[in-house]
Design brief:
164 residues, alpha/beta, seven-stranded mixed β-sheet
């Protein structure tokens, strides 16, 4: 996960809760692929179809607040989002996202200085470059990077235990 990548930015606000990320009425669908078209639908019904694989979400504070539903980070990852950068995260969402292999980055400044459609170059654990400015970012602990690099907790444990 140390390789750099470029990503188109989609901007969301503060307090994007799990009911906005994936409304309750879609939780009964059989697969996360079935749920994908409804991601972010209470806020922006068109967003799920506009997000392309490799794009990133930049949000304000408290991203992922609300219920602990694991389908919220799963559907974000299923959309092909490369990472979410926010000022802060709800702790259970943060853990669920890492466990599902979705890269989350905390940064206090990016949200206030970018606009939707900007393109960023992300070097996980080092920096984000956008509009000629470099934003330093913290690296995640090695154990969390191992989970992300494996694609999620289940895959990481299978690898660690010699099952894959």
């Amino acid at each position: 996960m140390s390789d750099s990548f470029t990503a188109k930015i989609w901007v969301l606000g503060d307090d994007i809760d799990t009911d906005i990320i994936l409304p309750t009425e879609y939780l009964a669908m059989k697969t996360v692929q079935d749920m994908k078209p409804y991601a972010f639908s209470p806020l922006r019904p068109e967003l799920a179809e506009k997000i392309k694989p490799g794009d990133m979400i930049v949000a304000g504070k408290n991203f992922g607040c609300g219920s602990s539903r694991e389908q919220a980070p799963e559907v974000v990852k299923a959309l092909g989002v490369s990472c979410v950068v926010a000022k802060s995260y709800a702790r259970i969402f943060f853990r669920n996202a890492i466990n599902n292999g979705l890269l989350l980055i905390e940064n206090q400044d990016l949200y206030d200085e970018v606009k939707e459609g900007d393109v960023a170059t992300v070097t996980p654990g080092k920096s984000i470059e956008v509009n000629g400015k470099t934003y330093e970012i913290a690296s995640l602990p090695d154990n969390l990077m191992d989970i992300l690099n494996a694609g999620g907790l289940v895959q990481a444990m299978r690898k660690k235990n010699g099952l894959d």
